Input
Amino acid sequence: MEDLTQEKYLAAGIPPQSQSRKPGLEKVMDPQPVFDLKSRKGSGKLAGKVAVVTGGDSGIGKAAAIGFAKEGAHVAIIYYDEHIDAEATKHLIEEQDVRCTLHAGDISDEVFCRKAIEDAIELHGQLDILVNNAAWANRQESILDISAEQLQKTFAINIFSMFYLTKAALPHLKVGSSIINTSSIDAYAGQTGQVDYSTTKGAIVAFTRAMAKELAPDGVRVNGIAPGPIWTPLVASSHSEKEVAEFGKSTPLGRPGQPVDLTGGFVLLASADGAYMTGQFLHINGGAYMSS
Output
């Protein structure tokens, strides 16, 4: 994959587009998200570790999973039903001479979450890193338009799943293990049209900080990443064509982020480089705070 400079990012732009299918599919996005760079070389920071990544079939989760693989970690990807995207990601991970397993299902179901963790342990023998990343969104112009059904679904996928997966993973974690939760700039700045989504992302911040305190005596670190506007299938499936065409342009850097822009953050929090970090959030948002 060719490395992209800032100038190429800005020149490429994003044409108007939208996807009716939720969650969205990476394979039909134009341009394709950038999830890896040729210049990014691993140095064995996660050699022999095993990571479970939700939503690892595409977008931010895919970038994190490939970043872990480049550092020597084996990966279990939990995803919903985007089988083509998942198989493509598995192939890229296995090119790094590590193992990758796929676990399809609905993370809003606690029974599935327990089974997915159990299957990952059975296939990989251990668990060192849990990335709670998968999310769902459905834009509504007003809170008056958010039905009880949508509210419950957003919370079930975005935050309840983190309780389920963390509870299932805890017996297998040990000193030096890491949990990384994906929140959003929306937790801090808010977002019109996504009140329920923004609220779940705020809950993730509180969950992360509470779990960091709870697990610190056990030597397990819990941190998070709060991305700004990142070009992922979730964007294409939850925004209008006009919104997509303008996506990320208002940031000081003038472009949406790419999933690969978050890879270094995930590796930092998963590895010994972040050994003195817990209860923290990395804000990777192109300077969006300064323009909000």
